[in-house]
Amino acid sequence: ALPICGERNRRRRYQVAFSYMPQNEDELELKVGEIIEVLGEVEEGWWEGVLHGRSGMFPSNFIKELPGDGDRSALDEQQLRTGTKDTPGSESDGGDSSSTKSEGANGM
Length: 108
Description:
Blueprint: H1 2-9, E1 12-16, E2 35-43, E3 46-51, E4 54-59, E5 63-65, H2 69-107
Antiparallel strand pairs: 1-2, 1-5, 2-3, 3-4
């Protein structure tokens, strides 16, 4: 399912987790917190991306995935799932409140 998201999005956005000083001209300097657009994997452990209008290579383990458009749908699904899980609990809460109401009525 993930490759389809990648094709739909084409560009994946990641956040820089660790700063990186480039060792070669074709590498990007990464600063913590910057958002980088990933174009694709160049070789094992090295990705190509665009940062500040410059494209270049960088170590893939220095960045972390941003919850972008492609991932948001998956997150929504999780929330929906947990939401449906929570509904029985909320229903039982409703039951509890109605039982306390009836007790109150009995007390009167």
